[in-house]
Specification:
It comes from Novosphingobium panipatense. 0% of the residues lie in helices and 47% in strands.
Length: 141
């Protein structure tokens, strides 16, 4: 029986990766600066450097990364520079990419859009929160 675990380890080149075991379910968004290997289930958006999804894994939410390797079920959009869709994968959502590999037998129900524009390395710009006491000058008449 597979053991459920979440771990973070350093690789020899100094980068790190985290792993969600097959018996792990996460309800909420995940943001990681490291590489992520998901064998469990995620109910939320996922943002990381590189994602490897196991065959039995399910992700219900948007994925943003530099590179992704999809092997399980994804219900949501995928946006990455490098996308690999394995023959065991099933994607129900749109895929934005710069380079794309699809193995024969993979299933995709969505649109393919070359030229990924929003990846983990390109954060979404956020407007500053307005102060309630802020008074704007009146327009000249």
């Amino acid at each position: 029986m597979a053991k459920a675990f979440i771990s973070a380890r350093s690789t020899p080149v100094g980068s790190s990766f985290s792993m969600l075991g097959a018996d792990v379910t996460v309800n909420g968004d995940i943001t990681a600066s490291a590489d992520l290997h998901v064998d469990g289930n995620v109910q939320g958006d996922l943002s990381c450097n590189a994602l490897i999804q196991g065959e039995g894994s399910e992700i219900h939410g948007a994925i943003r990364a530099q590179s992704v390797r999809i092997g399980g079920l994804v219900r949501g959009s995928v946006s990455a520079r490098d996308v690999v869709i394995l023959k065991t994968a099933r994607i129900e959502g749109d895929v934005s990419y710069e380079t794309l590999t699809i193995e024969q037998g993979a299933r995709l129900d969505g649109r393919l859009s070359p030229g990924a524009t929003q990846t983990a390395a390109t954060p979404i710009a956020r407007l500053p929160k307005l102060d309630d006491d802020l008074i704007l000058p009146a327009a000249a008449e």
